[in-house]
Specification:
The chain is globular. With about 325 residues, it is an alpha+beta fold.
């Protein structure tokens, strides 16, 4: 689950570039007003929304354009907490502590070594980030820290988990730092010194109130721990291990019957999780330009025809159609 308001800047940019945003939302039973006011979207709704809307201009860094329009209110309580932190390091600490208030699959880590601080952002459960989403996440973290610190906290390097774009220049201009591509998580590295500068806009009393409220909300935020655990196992063994539920259950230390029962209690099924993992990896690998036959093989389909049928069931399009649209 993810808070809908975080999609506002992306939807705004996609609409301006000709995407039928309202039509896509209607197909999902949603309205623009519901989303931007903070309704929670499931991972499937979020992915379908982005798939239905784009890529309308794959050559444009739409995620970065959306990041330029980001407002702290789009991240709801987490955005305000970061803005009113004592230092940039405290701001990313607030993001790490309360990332689940943005989405139950969000994972943030902070590593310190050799006078440097590296902030990583990704998704658990073996989930990939769509290129636009990866650009957007990196851009938003960058903007919050640079603007709150009055442009003192600038990264020394940035890594974005997406295929290398045709033009890297817009990324270098946006971050004013070397940018690399690939991997599993967004990664921004800063010097330890700039991460300790005081943030001028901090309201100490408001910060305490926000922190108390965030702690209370964390106990009632949507969660899907068990399905995420099973999904992560499926993703981990997708290319090498057996994909049947009995084998996955055994590797998780439970019976197949328990696996199916607990997934049913969480409102999902093993088949739905396997489909979800395969679809997400298919979209990612095809976006990288991998041949359809190779993607079918990596996902465990008997042949490209079987994969094409599944892909059409997932997306409404054939793999070759998706490839041509993404170029």
């Amino acid at each position: 689950m993810a808070i809908g308001s975080i999609y506002r800047p992306l939807l705004e940019v996609l609409r301006e570039y000709g995407a039928d945003v309202d039509g896509a939302l209607s197909l999902l039973g949603l309205s623009y007003e519901e989303v931007v006011e903070g309704q929670w979207l499931s991972p499937e709704q979020g992915r379908r929304l982005m798939r239905l809307c784009g890529p309308v201009r794959p050559e444009e860094p739409l995620g970065l354009l959306a990041a330029k329009r980001f407002r702290e209110a789009d991240a709801d309580l987490v955005g305000y907490l970061m803005r009113h932190s004592a230092t940039p390091l405290d701001a990313v600490g607030a993001l790490q502590e309360h990332a689940k208030l943005l989405g139950d699959s969000a994972v943030v880590a902070i590593a310190r070594a050799d006078s440097a601080v590296t902030v990583t952002f990704g998704r658990d459960g073996g989930r990939h980030m769509l290129p636009e989403g990866a650009d957007f996440a990196a851009g938003v973290i960058h903007r919050i820290l640079t603007e709150a610190s009055r442009k003192v906290a600038k990264p020394t390097s940035v890594r974005i988990p997406r295929p290398r774009p045709r033009s890297v220049a817009p990324y270098r201009r946006f971050f004013s730092a070397p940018v690399s591509f690939g991997g599993q998580h967004v990664s921004l590295t800063y010097s330890d010194e700039v991460m300790r500068v005081p943030l001028q806009q901090r309201d100490r009393r408001l910060s305490r109130i926000l922190q108390q409220h965030a702690t209370g909300l964390a106990s009632i935020a949507p969660t899907a721990d068990f399905p995420s655990r099973i999904r992560a196992r499926i993703a981990q063994d997708l290319e090498t291990g057996p994909r049947d539920p009995a084998s996955v259950a055994k590797r998780c230390g439970i019976s197949e019957r328990t696996l199916r029962r607990r997934l049913a209690d969480a409102g999902t099924t093993y088949r739905a999780l396997l489909d979800d993992v395969r679809e997400e990896h298919a979209l990612s690998w095809l976006s990288e330009g991998q041949p359809v036959t190779r993607v079918a093989q990596r996902l465990g389909f008997s042949d490209a025809t079987s994969f094409a049928r599944a892909f059409r069931r997932w997306t409404g399009r054939l793999p070759h159609s998706f490839l041509s649209r993404s170029r």
